[in-house]
Amino acid sequence: MSAGLSALALERRRAAWWFLLPAVVAVLLVAGWPLARTIWFSLTDARLDETAAPAFVGLSNYLLLIEDPDWWNAVRNTVVFAVASVTCETLLGLVIALALNERMRGRGMLRAAMLIPWAIPTVVSAQIWGWMLHDQVGVVNQALLALGLVERPLAWTADPDLALWAVVAVDVWKTTPFMTLLILAALQLLPDEIYEAADIDGLGPVGRFFRLTLPLIRPALMVAVIFRTLDALRVFDLMYVLTGNSAATASMSVYARQQLVEFQDIGFGSAAATGLFLIIALATALLLTAGRVRLGAAEGGR
Amino acid sequence: MSARRLRRHIGRVLFVLLMLLIAFYTVFPFYWAIVTSLKSGSALFGAEPWPAHPAWGNYVAVFRDRPFGRNILNSVIVATSVVAVSLCLGATAAFALGRVAFRGRGVLLAAILAVSMFPQVAVLSGLFELIRWLGLYNSLGSLVFSYLIFTLPFTVWVLTTFMREMPRELEEAAVMDGATPWVVLTRVFLPLMGPALATTGLLAFIAAWNEFLFALTFTLTDDMRTVPVAIALISGASSFELPWGRIMAASVIVTVPLILLVLVFQRRIVAGLTAGAVKG
Amino acid sequence: MRAALALFCALITTLPARAEVTLAVSCGAVGIEAQLCREGAETWARETGNRVSMISTPAGATERLALYQQLLAARSPDIDVLQIDVVWPGILARHLVDLSDRLSEGDRAAQFAAMIENDMVDGRLVALPWFTAAGVLYYRRDLLESYGRRVPETWAELTETAQRITDAERAAGHARMWGFVFQARAYEGLTVNALEWVNSHGGGTIVDPEGRITIDNPQAAAALAQAAGWIGTIAPFGVLNYAEEETRAVFQPGNAVFMRNWPYAWPLLNAEDSPVRGKVGVAVLPRGGGPDGRHSATLGGEQLAVSRYSQHPEEAASLVVYLTSRAEQKRRAIAGGLNPTWRDLYDDPEVLAANPFFGALRDTFENAVARPSAATGTHYNQVSAEFRNAVHTVLSGRAEAASTLHRLAARLQRLQRAGGW
């Protein structure tokens, strides 16, 4: 950086802080108190039904949490769910986005159709699926029986071996559009020349995808994967509506909600919520490292 | 040569089949919701692919029993405001985070992301207190305010990523002409980021449109409810009975505006392609 | 900052208008239940010169409770009168006004004792009974007749009859026939169903009224083992995720011989387009075998309470007394089939004309078994969750009944020591 530029650079830096200020203030205002409160309560014995002021109990809520097999069962369910659903959504999202990026007939309709699942409120779509997966009168089993694919109706949401996968299938249905749209936006920002160059080099479509497209859209893809993973690890309403509090599918959020709301145990429930936060932070750190996302990196440009 | 052409044809057919399969997977449940919304009584428990006697009564009932039109309006107001605020704040922040090198940038990005790592139910009580203290309880303002907790980190991150991808030469040329950072952002970058802005806005819009837990907790009266809560509060003759037909009718009604929105927005998404300057 | 934010938000919203004495009442959402509540409240408002505004809250019990807790913990005056579930008085008691002086001794004696007892918390009457409900057995009268079977008296008889009829019907080509459907999803409804099995075998009520943990006993284990035997034989495996409506979805199209459900299903099963219209009977739930066997039905129902943070507690209490009065409950029983809590209404010819099975099942409603919500107070939800999770494991065949109940008792004891009820 030359001395001549540094005055300009300083001015840019000052401007940058003013640009940041509104968003940072907004985030602090909305999230500061709720988050601080949750972390504080996780260190106390607060209960919704106690009138006395909560007492500080140190880390004992966390020790109880670590000892609870139900919590670890919820962690296992959530991680399996998140890995399975995010993987499927990313692959499916890539395929659909690449297809929608090609010039072909019916592209507009396909794009609108693909977005439908994401547009239906989860509260409702989970219930639609709940009925479609009903073992006796649901359309899924009726269709499978009619096609002769199964001999007798499957208890999709009741069978512990099937329930988690049924939830994954519904989540893939529901959130693949999110992936698709973000990947599509990244694809649309790519200039056409690079492909022209690739045609000259004689790369096939597969080579073109792995050698050119994927590296270029990787930053956007990683952001999409990170946000999907955050959402998947916090999954709540799908499990709750489809299978209630069943242990076979209970996620970490379902567990935390049960402690916080149903059992009125604010202290322990906040510890579970904070534990969930720590697990997500760990997962995000892993993703950032694996995806070689450099947070502090200078502006890219090509 | 002909073998290669054959392979190409087979590939083409397989591709079309795959697309049809995906389209079926995504559209069928919505189709099923429409079918269900046209059934009533015992027909709901059957699985025929199209009702023998389509009953439109469910659609009439949705608007008759509750201020459903008002609920849709509320959702539109809330989702639009949230998207407007998030995009304004997100775009300026993304410019700073994506284009300017300064110490603490990574920490700031990580901190903003951390806000999205707590489960909704854990921040519910804190937000509830905050909203009562601000005097926003049972108003649409409470929802606009609380939805920022999930739309803002998302827009900041996505826009920062896309902002980084902008070619450096464009900015340098503008700076040479004496453009301030504000001008660079609003006149140079934002017009180029059409697809990114449209996509981010659309995703944030739908997230706000579909949110349930905050909307249920921070509003109380029917005239302040948003669509997902209104649908969830549709109940049957007794607390156990679920009026499927009406719930599905309401879902179909609220999904249609979103599909229209996509059709409008997708012109923007495609328009970005030909916006020009990037391709030089 | 605060003012600026409020101003900003005022631009995109309108603040609700408030009149002098307007009571905010939370009862059902829509449908006949809400309609009757609204009519009743509006009649009261006309007579007393006040106003009421109806607040719709979620129909699902857990969601509604969560919303109430949020509002009450914040001491919110936004709701004056609350409709609360039969198991909530203990949980919400400290937020509710004592209504003892609103109901005379005579009027208390004239209502179901179980309901009044249920609403007494530490000597305070925190809510007034509004309507009651209890589990009943729906059966296919036509099928029982054609196979020459009587309405089962014991669970063993039900098992046998269900198996016999299912086998015969399936052999005759009705492949989707099942014997018995009930609610075994991991939610409060499973606690209700399992308590009926356990109690009907003489196995107690999980925690007795004095707060002692009684669930670890052979009768309870026998009851659960029997229920586990139904899964996959007379009941589809899917019942493990059925709530009320999922069971009705099997029974109403004619695919089950027996169904355990609440009285709400009666008018729906006899609706004009119902395939089983006129073919259904209602009976008390069977009893367990052995000397301790008895007919048991779990107590359900709703009460009305007044929030301690109401700005108009006098008017709110008067509205609650009006809505729970004998005359109002009679109107609701006739128009909506909601079970009254006043005893003499079960002899009332008009009520019986509208609900023919009320008379025969009066004992069931009157002697329904309460869940241990009073004994466990604010810990009830936790006890219920532990119990239903244990039952769910047994039903899905992943654990054996006696040892599961033994472990359950140990967990409940830990809970009792830690929280203390």
UniProtKB/TrEMBL annotation, chain A:
Domain of life: Bacteria
Main location: membrane
Transmembrane spans: 15-36, 78-100, 112-132, 162-189, 268-288
Family label: Belongs to the binding-protein-dependent transport system permease family.
Signal peptide: none
Keyword field: Cell membrane, Membrane, Transmembrane, Transmembrane helix, Transport
SUPFAM superfamilies for this protein: MetI-like
InterPro entries with a match to the protein in the record: MetI-like, MetI-like_sf
Membrane topology: Multi-pass membrane protein
Sequence ranges assigned to domain ABC transmembrane type-1 in this UniProt record: 75-289
CDD domains attached to this UniProt entry: TM_PBP2
Cellular localization per UniProt: Cell membrane
Protein name: Sugar ABC transporter permease
Automatic annotation (TrEMBL), chain B:
Record carries keyword Transmembrane helix: yes
CDD domains: TM_PBP2
Superkingdom to which the source organism belongs: Bacteria
Ranges where the ABC transmembrane type-1 domain occurs: 72-265
Cross-referenced Pfam families: BPD_transp_1 (PF00528)
Transmembrane segments: 12-34, 72-95, 107-128, 140-163, 184-209, 247-265
UniProt keyword Transport present: yes
Keyword set, alphabetical order: Cell membrane, Membrane, Transmembrane, Transmembrane helix, Transport
SUPFAM superfamilies in alphabetical order: MetI-like (SSF161098)
Record localization: Cell membrane
Gene3D superfamilies, per database record: MetI-like (1.10.3720.10)
InterPro entries, alphabetized: BP-dep_ABC_trans_perm, MetI-like, MetI-like_sf
Membrane topology: Multi-pass membrane protein
Family: Belongs to the binding-protein-dependent transport system permease family.
The protein's name: Carbohydrate ABC transporter permease
Organism: Roseomonas alba
TrEMBL record, chain C:
Top-level taxonomic group: Bacteria
Family, as annotated: Belongs to the bacterial solute-binding protein 1 family.
Record's keyword terms, sorted: Signal, Transport
Chief localisation class: periplasm
Organism of this sequence: Roseomonas alba
InterPro entries: Bact_solute-bd_prot1 (IPR050490), SBP (IPR006059)
Identification of the protein by name: ABC transporter substrate-binding protein
Database matches in CDD domains: PBP2_TMBP (cd14750)
Pfam families referenced in this protein's UniProt entry, alphabetically: SBP_bac_1 (PF01547)
Location in the cell: Periplasm
Signal sequence region: 1-19
